[in-house]
């Protein structure tokens, strides 16, 4: 059932997309929709929207009555020396994309709204946060779990949509939601790629033409791993060696591993069962850090 404008507590308008910067108004709007038995799909983002984000919103629109997006560059998930200050913030373009996709509402808090003076409560991430990204960015997932839990509390959505490109983040959020009995369904969404195979990312815009060509080594490494596995190769060391060879053009490789999809730990020395493993890579091209993965 379509709602009328009279149903809506309005902060301000970009045509039909309602914009909220205040937590109470956002929560009030969401609760009002739920009282009318409308299901809400939540798509948390840090902005700099691309086709991957838009695919999440389209799925939320298909599977729920309403879609609310969030745009917030979360400072607590950036470590010292990372790209917080230069992270792209093309807000007007993002709002135009939301309008084009008929997103119903967007929550646009500032840092002082999410982390007011005296803020001191953080959500400790589950064990799945410890390997891989957790080894090189030990505070990253504490920032992720904290901000995502806050967004869950504010939006009170029925479902939240996350892309599988950030697979470890997805697993962290799934376990946090389960462990803390959060009444929201986490929906996994497929990776969206450019026509040449590069996984879509807001950080791709940092790459110059030469770097972008080298960045294709990530998807090539994963394709090589998948092809090896499909041809019968089960030895993890062999598959990882092939991935690392493909990534030799990168300036630095953080990891190129095959792990269990649930625990993100190495299963054994070999892949013993189908549909239990995932290949993950993280590498730097110039000053840009990229990640990607492929289910095996």
Automatic annotation (TrEMBL):
Pathway(s) the chain acts in: Cofactor biosynthesis; (R)-pantothenate biosynthesis; (R)-pantothenate from (R)-pantoate and beta-alanine: step 1/1
Binding site for ATP: 46-53, 163-166, 192, 200-203
Family annotation (InterPro entries): Cyt_trans-like (IPR004821), Pantoate_ligase (IPR003721), Pantoate_ligase_C (IPR042176), Rossmann-like_a/b/a_fold (IPR014729)
Catalytic residues (positions): 53
Keyword Ribosomal protein appears in the UniProt entry: no
Enzyme nomenclature, EC number: 6.3.2.1
Pfam family, one: Pantoate_ligase
Entry binding sites for (R)-pantoate: 77, 169
Enzyme class: ligase
Keywords recorded for this protein, A-Z: ATP-binding, Cytoplasm, Ligase, Nucleotide-binding, Pantothenate biosynthesis
GO cellular component, one term: cytosol
Localization annotation: Cytoplasm
Family per similarity comment: Belongs to the pantothenate synthetase family.
Binding partners and assembly: Homodimer.
PANTHER family: CYTIDYLATE KINASE/PANTOATE-BETA-ALANINE LIGASE, PANTOATE--BETA-ALANINE LIGASE
Function: Catalyzes the condensation of pantoate with beta-alanine in an ATP-dependent reaction via a pantoyl-adenylate intermediate.
Protein's name according to its UniProt entry: Pantothenate synthetase
Organism: Neorhodopirellula pilleata
